[in-house]
Amino acid sequence: MTTVLDTMRNHRSIRSFQEKPISKEQIERIVSTAQMASTSNFVQAYSIIQVTDQEKRKQLAHFSGDQIYVEQAPVFFVFCADLYRIQQAIHHNGKEAEFSTIENFLVSIIDTALFAQNVMLAAESMGLGGVYIGGIRNQPQQVSEVLQLPQLVMPLFGMCLGYPTEHLPEQKQRLPLSVILHENEYQRDQQNEIEQYDRAITEYYRDRTNGRRADTWSGMMARLFLGPQRKSLRDFIEKQGFPLD
Amino acid sequence: MTTVLDTMRNHRSIRSFQEKPISKEQIERIVSTAQMASTSNFVQAYSIIQVTDQEKRKQLAHFSGDQIYVEQAPVFFVFCADLYRIQQAIHHNGKEAEFSTIENFLVSIIDTALFAQNVMLAAESMGLGGVYIGGIRNQPQQVSEVLQLPQLVMPLFGMCLGYPTEHLPEQKQRLPLSVILHENEYQRDQQNEIEQYDRAITEYYRDRTNGRRADTWSGMMARLFLGPQRKSLRDFIEKQGFPLD
């Protein structure tokens, strides 16, 4: 039995899995337990699509930037922000739903993410491991066609789950607590802490590559945000009917 | 020692707290453990502002729709999506960050929510309870002024934490698993399940109000989405520098 704090502390992204299957009962236990996460005004504005069809898996792996573990993981989920269900329920009541502000979009994203983190931790507490797949947003239109998503359902991220192979990846140190946790007002001057963190990350890579990789967190961020990311996303969100006003 | 699944299953929103304080060490343990949550490309695009100043608490309680527990809870956090830190780090490297697509905004929201759910569960596993405060988005501009948030930092939601009083609220049943968990494609016809769920919610309220409250989930959703919500949010997001393109 692992405690909550230990489960969190042991987290690493797992991309390599044993072939050992995961049962339907395990999945239902994970997902139904995760549903107890908080949800804004009880809207529960999310759905999971579990992809068991191998052809669809292959397509999604490709659309996610050729991430082979999307095809190979014992379990692959696509987490979707979902206002469609609510709209249907309201229609059935003979009323109209007004989803007209970005607030409605934000609520569905936050609800989905809180729920997803419960899924991840529940799975980890049962000996599984996994990784979030943001690459599912690379080609959201194609993903939606594969999964037959109606209007007001948006694929936010994927998740691979399975029993990890014996070699667990090492953990990367997080940002210093002092830049994450502020008191009463936002502390803008974080330069010393960031420099200290950059040095820690440099050491991490140096030790693990026999000195071949010299990198810093700041440097990684500079490369990552060099140009615009996922430019097709905005059009997709609007086309899918989520309000941005 | 409580397991992860038990902690999730026992979740309820706690709004009434004992006066028993929570130590700095407890808070640091909760937050630093929660930081091990997954983060997209290691960006860690979030900050917490812990509000200890009573005057600020009073203001935030008011801005959140006069939620008295925001003022009274032993601990109150504001969770912020944060691209400011990354921008500063990149600037210091002599480079420019391009935050130009809605993808950058989504990543910071999802990162923040995954981290926040870890905070909630970590706290719950230590005997605390809490509630998310979406009301922090009612008047985001005023909240940002109270907390002195720079550009590229956005208050997403608050969280009250403390030791629950002895009376724990009852839990509301979640949507049937069959409408949350789909296989291979989105199942659009959820009408039977929603009707069954509506009946369960009706029973829940009838039993707990001696028959005075007759309600359904669909009916609650219809009232909730009757008109536009938080109309000032879009302008605030743009003003704060988060890209929506």
Automatic annotation (TrEMBL), chains A, B:
CDD domains associated with the record: NfsA-like
InterPro entries in the record: Flavin_OxRdtase_Frp (IPR016446), Nitroreductase (IPR029479), Nitroreductase-like (IPR000415)
Domain Nitroreductase: 9-163
Entry keyword Oxidoreductase: yes
GO molecular function term, any single one: oxidoreductase activity
Keywords: Flavoprotein, FMN, NADP, Oxidoreductase
Pfam families found in the cross-reference section: Nitroreductase (PF00881)
PANTHER family reported for this sequence: NADPH-DEPENDENT OXIDOREDUCTASE (PTHR43425:SF3), OXYGEN-INSENSITIVE NADPH NITROREDUCTASE (PTHR43425)
Homology family: Belongs to the flavin oxidoreductase frp family.
Protein name (database record): FMN reductase (NADPH)
Species this protein is from: Tepidibacillus fermentans
